[in-house]
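Agenda item 2: S-adenosylmethionine complex prediction
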Amino acid sequence: MVNVYESERLRDEYLLFHYGRPEQIHNWAGGPDQAHEFPKRIVERFSPGPADRALDLGCAVGRSAFEMSREAGEVVAIDYSHSFVEAGKEMQKRGGCQVSRLDEGSLLDSIFVEAPSEARPDCIKFEQGDAMDLRRDLGDFDRVLAANLLCRLQDPACLLARLPELVRLGGELVLTTPCTWLEEFTPRNHWPTGSTLGWLKDKLSPTFELLEEHDEPFLIRETARKFQWTVALLTKWRRVQGA
Ligand SMILES: C[S@@+](CC[C@H](N)C(=O)[O-])C[C@H]1O[C@@H](n2cnc3c(N)ncnc32)[C@H](O)[C@@H]1O
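Presented output:
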């Protein structure tokens, strides 16, 4: 099956989503401006203060990893898409890159997007990997983020089962999901049978304590006139019991 996340179109859509300035994304009066800067906002849900190691799973082109690098000594950023991981490395090396932004039909323009200037790119290690089959020597982390990843996995329960090993005792986990379960990504027998929130509580408790839950909107530009406005469910957890 073709991996949509390897395409140039999605790579550029995600570079714009993660690093684009609000006015590069849209200039429509009345647009959902509270939906900008999603990858930054969700990292701000971790309790503030220094951290030793942080992990961004399903990092895409890496903006949240840049945000995590402000406080973490080391950030490991993993995505299944080679193209996304290469784009993240490019942002890390050059501090920015040229993106083809689709206006309509075959009309494209070229814009420059920049990495956040106060982040610490040297602390980030981008790597290609499978969140359902992570390397055994990855170690453990003070902070683990998996943003909008669960409902893109074949078997999300497989990642949930690995989380107690990945999050240190007392460490924090932030999960976001738009709960858009699709057979294209996840066979129906691996979908939650009830609500996604109920399923997460069932899988993660009592090893993890639920600290907060709320809604986080995000906006992805497809063309100058068409956008995906989505509201993700964000949950924040602390690991409280042995793995
Ligand atoms: C909906 S995007 C979310 C990206 C990013 N976290 C964000 O919030 O913008 C899903 C991401 O998960 C990645 N992905 C899909 N399956 C994966 C897997 N098995 N292991 C790691 N990453 C995966 C995709 O390549 C894509 O970057």
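Discussion summary: Residues 4-239 form a domain with the Rossmann fold fold (CATH 3.40.50.150).
Owner for follow-up: CH.
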